[in-house]
Design goal:
Blueprint (H helix, E strand, L loop, with lengths): L10 H7 L5 H10 L5 E5 L5 H6 L5 E6 L2 H5 L7 E5 L12 E7 L7 H11 E12 L6 H14 L8 H5 L17 E8 H9 L2 H10 L3 H10 L6 E14 L1
Helix pairs in contact: 1-8, 8-10
Length: 245
């Protein structure tokens, strides 16, 4: 499978506008690990997950295929960044307590990735794949979002995007899944922040590359009519697959 890098072009915007994850998610992960020596964050992007894990683990290794993404990553003394594909073994066998993947597992060669995970995780180590679905705001904004997502960009999404729409429900997960409550990440955003997030979508980049059209301006005009207050509450549903080796 050829490696796809859909986020280097907009790496600055990605670091600025991509949502993070709620504390409740990290509380769940920390409550279910057996040790907090070494964590591995795969497809780390700008390092938002790695940075949070670094507050609790002695060492965090964070990898990504995009050098441009890593250049924008959060720097902490106990985070060690490496440019590497997800499927590569980058540590000794049975050396990792927790492996995380945020909003990226759908891009992987999953059988190869899971083989690497099984080698690197300690017995009892935790694997967690998580991400976020489309945000909800209010009826008018959500209708406009749906139109952009489906009608304008529908044919420009990679096939892997359906896995996100399905909230990873069809992934053949290698370990017994741990039950959990629902997670939500909430923001109070301006229209600029909301549109900045849309601008980081891989389909937006592909649309503009193929048609040489500034889609961001068209999207901005579409949302002018429905974003009628200075700020609005934006809610991202978070999905999670987690299990121990």
């Amino acid at each position: 499978m050829a490696l796809k890098d859909r986020f280097s072009v907009q790496s600055t915007e990605y670091a600025t506008y991509r949502p993070s994850y709620p504390e409740s998610l990290f509380d769940f992960l920390l409550a279910n690990v057996t040790a907090k020596h070494t964590a591995l964050d795969v497809a780390t992007g700008n390092g938002q997950v790695a940075s949070r894990l670094a507050d609790s683990f002695d060492t965090v290794i964070a990898t990504d295929i995009s050098d441009k993404q890593l250049k924008h990553a959060v720097a902490k003394k106990n985070i060690h960044y490496q440019q590497a594909p997800a499927e590569k073994l980058i540590t000794d066998p049975s050396s990792i307590d927790l492996i995380t993947v945020g909003q990226a597992a759908h891009w992987f060669d999953l059988p190869k990735f899971f083989d690497a995970v099984d080698t690197m995780l300690k017995p009892g180590g935790l694997l967690a794949l998580f991400g976020y679905s489309l945000p909800t705001v209010d009826k008018e904004v959500d209708i406009a979002m749906k139109y952009v997502y489906q009608e304008i960009l529908g044919t420009y999404w990679d096939k892997e995007r359906k896995m996100v729409d399905d909230q990873y429900a069809n992934i053949v997960f290698p370990y017994s899944k741990i039950n959990h409550t629902d997670f939500i990440q909430e923001y109070v955003w301006t229209s600029e922040q909301y549109l900045g997030y849309i601008g980081t979508w891989s389909a937006v980049q592909l649309y503009q590359q193929k048609l040489h059209i500034d889609l961001k301006e068209e999207i901005k005009n579409r949302f002018k009519e429905v974003w009628k207050s200075e700020t609005k509450k934006v809610r991202f549903p978070i999905f999670l697959l987690a299990g121990r080796k």
